[in-house]
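> @MW can you paste both from yesterday?
MW: sure, first one:
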Amino acid sequence: MIINVLTILYNTSLSESMTLKSILNTKLDSIQLNIIIWNNGPSLLSQDDIDNYLQNCQTKKVSTYIYQDVRNASLSKIYNHFIKKLNYDFFVIFDQDSNLESSFFQNIYSNKDYAIICPAVFPKQKIDKQCFPSDIEQREKVVPIGEFTLGNTRTINSGTALSRNLVENLQIKYNYVFDEKFAFYHTDHRLFDLINATTETTNLKGLCIGKMYHDMTCELSLEQLSERARLEIAYAKMLMRIYRANNPKNQIRRNLFYAYKMKKKDHLNFNSFIKLLKCVITKEHPRSVVSIDKNIQPTDTNI
């Protein structure tokens, strides 16, 4: 089985990423694992850091490709760029701060007939509280370990294995998998909205198996979040509101009023409020304008 793993780094080194460290501690029997690492900035990785990680991957016989683009590009565009390369059976996305069980990839190998395979996600802030996967509408209603129907469910991007069949069905329907009007937060929620709205995918079966611990922004209070984080969450909530509406073209006036309510509720300053209003008008995240070179090559690899 071929599994491609895409891990996005931001403001961290390879050696500091819990995800990258735990990947190399997993069991890989009968699996060809390809690790794609995208450093999204704000600075380049040190060469010593790169050389050490590539050596560790070589020891584990894991093919690794490192890309560096310090512009903080939209995650949905990064995901789509690599998911289109269909030389895999499953495609797995990770943030930089997920803690995997050693059986993570064996769980995928042993359940290859499912469209999606994902762990039960527990926030590092509250390790006894499962938060995903959950009901697509009722977020507090979590999906237990076991089989589920894709159209009724959503989970986070990190740790979710997407089958090649699911990816191909979405690409045929939309010509993409991740909606590039979204950039950071809620790219995953939007994905599951598309899965639910697609006849070829909504009734497919997924499997929740194993556990994963992950830093969850939703477990933090507004006071613990930076202005930038609060704005990013506001963008995501606004875009979900726009694209879940029956007729978004006729909703601008309502959405502008909703933006004003969000300014007060989410404690946004005036500059952030103006940026949110622009999002209402353009109906896309401002980082959506940043494109990725289709012919971009890795800066470093152990191949």
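MW: second:
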Amino acid sequence: MTKPPNPKPLLQDADKPVRSRPRKPRNPAQPNLPLDPMPDRIDPCLALLKPKPPKGPQWAFEVKWDGYRLAVHIEPSRVRILTRGGHNWTERFPAIAAEASRLPVATAILDGEAVVFDERGRSDFGRLQQSLGGRGGKRMSREAVLMAFDLLYFDGRDLTGTELTARRHLLEGLVPAGGEEAIRLSEEIEADGETLLRIACEHDLEGIIAKRRDSPYHSGRLGDWLKIKCIQSDGFAIVGYEKSTASFGGIGRLLLAARKGDDLVYVGGVGTGFNERSAAELREQMDKLIIGKPAVDTGRKRNTVFIDPKLVADIEYRAWTHDGKLRHASYKGLREVQDNTAVYELDPELSL
């Protein structure tokens, strides 16, 4: 019987001792963890708008929440809460920060949406804004709840290169389903996309989110996550308002514009969705920006005040008219000037 040869050390000179590869240096702030450095900030993965839900077992579905996108950084000696634009709003969400500090983890980054619920359990963007003191306000919101839907960093491990299924498994161990705390799990719903969208719309929810189960976490809007809405909701620049003595804040109708290339284009107006408080806050903001000539051509309007288009309104609408105007529009609130102020972009090829 032939004796097998002695194995040689793998990828080594046979005459040299075998040495293991040097380990990464440990982070002194996390002495017990083999390290992936904890990122200071991760640009969020954004959902691409689609008219219909995708099909196939590779897609997971959740409710679409209507609030502020947040990243909650749990660090060895502090908690930081960052907005989508990277602004530190830790002080503005004390209940979420306190709950984050109680989670059973040394270090983590949670991705989620801060929401305030109405009496029917639906997320309400207007209530969230009011709880924060309105646009540009500085109040703390003790009512806001973080609906956590992803885990990007966990006990010294960067999970952004890991598939969604594994990230969700770890998240569900950290934030159990069915909680009533200030951080709650945004649960995956076992249903096909079309059925879930129909149910969401019947319950007057904003829509649903679809996510590829096998996808790593990619910053930006690359199509790994999709959003399908019951009602369209986008940001439009306010270019003026029509006065009315019979309406809240004296605002009969807001005049709105979308972006088309480098220009703004008038897309109609909105006269519903205001209450006394939101209209008064909006009027105060607009009257600081009054200009003599309109920034865009709005056609002939009576009793109109034109403003510098620096305010971005969040508008719900059902569709577009044949001549490029919003149909069944309703005002939801002003978007924060320092965060999430994108103005809707029209197709440059579209003829209005």
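> thanks! Helices lie at 94-102, 125-131, 164-174, 193-202, 276-286.
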